[in-house]
Every structure is written in C-alpha cells, then in structure tokens.
C-alpha cells in the first residue's frame, strides 16, 4: 500500500475501551473482520480486530502489518483509540507499509463502523470499514 497506511492497513477503526482485559459484557469482545478502503485509493484491504484477550490487537493481513489499539475515551456508542503499529512499519526504500493513527469504533446493530485517520509526510489519510464478528 502506498503510504496510505491506515496504519497502512488501517482504518483501524474501532475498538472498545479495555485496559486489563475485556469483560464478556463488552460488545467488542471477540474477533471482528472487515474490508477497509482508504480515501483516494483503489481496492479494499482486510482488517481484523482481536479483542478476545488482554487489550485490542489489529491486523492488516494484506499489508503484512499490525499493532495495538489503546483506548482513550468513549461516548455513547462510540469508542476512540490510538493505534500503534508494532509489526511491519514503513519500508524506507519503497514508502509502502503501515503507520499508526487514530481509530473510532461506532457500534451499529451487530456491527462496528471502523474509522481510521492518520497522516504521512504532512498529508491526511482516512480509511473506513464495517466490521462483523467472526463466526
């Protein structure tokens, strides 16, 4: 992916507040999958949120990168996170890879709307997806 890095993969959008682990009553508990699209880019890319253990992990399989989401707040049906890429950052030779950003998750019925915002070299990057719980 170009430096359309939603965290290069990401629009990591949305995970729920969780510190030392998510309670079973937490609507985000479990594994959530979706296809995100970055504004201004063709194609879609897989995003997976894993909130089944301690913390929230994000994986962008198509970009070979991933990281974690740190909860920073919530209001109503929305949760807000800071994404940190811990695997597969930017390749300086190609400029491709993943960058961390800010993720918003909005609970809508049985799904989450995932939104991701970041910047690369001073340019804004935006991505979004609908996440469904893995069966």
Automatic annotation (TrEMBL):
Residues 1-25 form the signal peptide. It comes from the Bacteria. The keyword Signal applies. Keywords: Signal. This is Protease inhibitor Inh. It comes from Kaistia soli DSM 19436. The lineage of its organism: Bacteria, Pseudomonadati, Pseudomonadota, Alphaproteobacteria, Hyphomicrobiales.
């Amino acid at each position: 992916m170009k430096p359309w890095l939603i965290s290069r993969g990401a629009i990591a959008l949305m995970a729920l507040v969780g510190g030392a682990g998510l309670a079973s009553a937490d609507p985000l508990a479990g594994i959530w999958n979706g296809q995100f699209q970055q504004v201004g880019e063709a194609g879609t890319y897989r995003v997976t949120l894993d909130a089944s253990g301690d913390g929230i992990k994000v994986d962008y399989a198509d970009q070979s990168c991933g990281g974690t989401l740190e909860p920073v707040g919530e209001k109503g049906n929305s949760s807000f996170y800071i994404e940190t890429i811990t695997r597969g950052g930017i390749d300086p030779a190609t400029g491709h890879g993943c960058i961390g950003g800010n993720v918003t998750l909005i609970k809508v019925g049985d799904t989450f709307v995932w939104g991701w915002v970041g910047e690369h070299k001073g340019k804004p990057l935006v991505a979004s997806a609908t996440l469904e719980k893995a069966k």
